[in-house]
Fold O-methyltransferase C-terminal domain-containing protein.
Amino acid sequence: MAQPPILRPDLDTIVSLAETISRCARQLESSGASVGTPPSPPASPKTQQNIQGTERTELREACDKLLYLAAGPYEHLMATAQSHRVEAALQFAAHFDLASYVPSDGSSIAFSELAAATGLPTLQISRMFRILVVYHIFCEPRLGFVAHNACSRLLLEQHIHATVSYYTDESFRAASCLSETTRKWPGTQERNETALNLAYNTTLPKFEFFNAEPWRAARFRMAMAGMTQGESFSLQHLVQGFDWASLPEGSMVADIGGGGGHVSVALAKAHTKLNFIVQDLKTAFDGNSIPESLSGRISFREHNFFTTQPSSADVFLLRWILHDYPDKFARKILQNTVAAMKPGSRIVVMEGVMQPPGSQSHICERKSRLLDVAMMTLLNSSERDLDAWKSLFYEADPSLKLVKVTTPAASALSVMELQLDV
Ligand SMILES: C[S@@+](CC[C@H](N)C(=O)[O-])C[C@H]1O[C@@H](n2cnc3c(N)ncnc32)[C@H](O)[C@@H]1O
């Protein structure tokens, strides 16, 4: 019987990895990229742009493997098993908004002063900060004082703070209930039998639960915008990943499940001849911030995508919607969308397309694996590979044809274009 292929044979040694690191570092330095310590404040976080491109991926991959080999199996396993403690410290910092108490001009503040300002115990504050410091978040420039570094300064940005809060609160707490959930509801695809349901003792599915506590819905919406700040989920990939310029002037894009409208804003800025209707649940419309200059081209409409699509559009955009649902629900969303399509209109789906295990670097593969576990934990859904996407589209409607798949460089998501085959 044929043996399955051996995945990713690991032939690297500490020395060969060190050589790779040295080569990549030299290439990056000669290309003018900053490979040293990120500047400390008051430089703007935007000025410490990460090292870009394939050299960066190769460098990170080699560093990651080298760290693993240097640590050895026992240390690596134990460090991984304890990573929740770092997450807990970050949750603490996000929950009490500690970054906002640290001077943004680069100077430091005493732990005791921070404790007085927040009403938290000094000892607990210092212990939480000190674990973050050894993970490169904040620094302690002199004993008993904390200051921002380039990484902690990101927490001053509202959207990034919301992303970290969401990851370290709902996402983290739900993840700790995953095994218990599997024992209780093995193999379920129900939206309200998830680890999130156990963690929060609720019978509501994720988005209904968030809507019942509008501050969670608002934070999640902001978190979605925060996730687009990095390279992998940048909205530029959507701006460039579909031929928006080919649409006639005045075309309408329905941004289904568009949250606070951040995706439509990015597209509207780049494509000035297009109009947008952002559809989402009611709570999405509280305090949304569309720039004045775009308000004539972007409107909002309350719409539950499990019901009949009420808008006519040239493009129906589903960015990061279908991966939230197991097939039976995702099919329904697509069918409601198909029913509203007119001749020539298209569906644009932007989602991860899982690659076969071992076909990417660990650093790249981790992103889709982490997302996949998040989907399992919070929604009983999953990331899909191309075959799974194709069969979902076919089962939703056999006349729905996937005409193009584009994966922009450095994007963790692909743009899939669908048309009706009439
Ligand atoms: C993962 S977010 C994606 C947001 C945005 N499309 C993006 O790419 O950043 C899912 C969005 O779907 C919305 N949503 C969830 N259930 C919905 C429903 N039944 N009808 C309409 N929108 C819904 C959520 O409020 C949220 O804004």
Q: What stands out?
A: The CA atoms of residues 28 and 55 lie 7 Å apart.
